[in-house]
Amino acid sequence: MANVISTAKKIAVITALVEGCSVRSTVRMTGVSKGAVLRLLVSVGAACADYQDRSIRNVAARRVQVDEIWSFVGCKQKNVTAEKIEAGTCGDVWTFTAIDAQTKLVISWMVGRRDAGCATDFLRDVEGRLSNRIQLTTDGHKMYLTAVPDAFASNIDYAQLVKVYGNDPEGQKRYSPAQCLGTKRVDIIGFPDHEHISTSYVERQNLNMRMNMRRFTRLTNAFSKKLDNHVAMIALFHMHYNFCRIHQTLRVTPAMEAGISSHVWSIQEIVTLSTQSLSQAA
Question: How many helices (H) and strands (E) does the chain have?
């Protein structure tokens, strides 16, 4: 008979994971085996994804910012081989996120490739969760030029914030981005308000993701080894961010600010979601 993890242990494990601890450090701190930690992560992550899919609907956002953040599973794209592909999904993966600039609610996210197909699927999901016309800002990636009209048609005010980078020879020799010389605001669809053409909030959310998910930390061996675990951790992170973590500026959670939740969720409530899902499935 398999050992059953106590509720207190489950709470300790989930708390460690959402605070940016690696799986192995979580094992050392909680005494729960690595396999049990990962099984709990997948179970809770699936429940979090399902709950947010059902609850984050009819969002009355006015300004939405979209961006994508890079990571990889198993190995980087340049190191992918036929043998590694046969063993499972591997290579670069991108996480698309859409954040409401006012409530700071992450309306939707999706893990996939950085191409027009995935961008279109993601933006169609975003469109289906909104209750009104919005102003949308993305970066200057060309995939959005087809993805946005495919998802919203003309029922949107859309602009791109295009960053202009310099050619810094020194920057190519070290692990750092090129120097940004400035930005251009480009109207694409409708009549976006130039005062609110910005990607600052969604880029700050990218930092939150790197800070609070150990598998997103670069130049380490903490990267995801399986896509299922990667997706589950992202769902858990957003559940904690949207419903549990009090925003420093808002002084409430983003879900409360958006009118989706009436209280600050506890980690125990998140753990209970997976138990409820198993009961419903049975």
Answer: 10, 6
